[in-house]
Amino acid sequence: MLEKIINKPMDHISYHGTNKENAIKIVGPPSMLDIEIGKGELGKGFYTGTSIALAAIWAQNRFPKDGVVIEFNISPLNFVKLRGHMIKTQADVLSKWKDLKKADLASIHTFGYDYIVAPFATIEEMGSQFKFESKLAEDELKLANKNIFLCGS
Length: 153
Known about the structure:
The chain is globular. The protein is an alpha+beta fold and 153 residues long. It has helices at 2-7, 20-27, 52-62, 76-79, 90-102, 135-143, and strands spanning 12-19, 39-40, 43-44, 46-49, 67-74, 84-86, 115-118, 129-132, 145-150.
């Protein structure tokens, strides 16, 4: 039984909301994804989330005419090679976000891992966010299978 579970293909799938122009650059070929230009609640990096709904809503609100969602599917063999760090509570994420904003570090802060997994600071019960922050993580995102989904207008 355990062997069947171990051999079952389970990929890391997450979603990123953006616009068509950025999606074409991110997906490629070649992929122009760059973790150095993104920032969010937890500092510099490329953000994805486990909820396609949140990615779609974010893309539709930010890019009403050309919002898209990119689905990233990283091979489990590659994903487990990345070093991760978990922030467990929404309160901890919110506190870190406030600290980064106060110190004006939101565009440069990293934790020193390949990725961070955490709840969202201001959204409850809607999955987790991933912040990819290392060159190794960037390379894995570039190698990941990617699909683009056009959002409704």
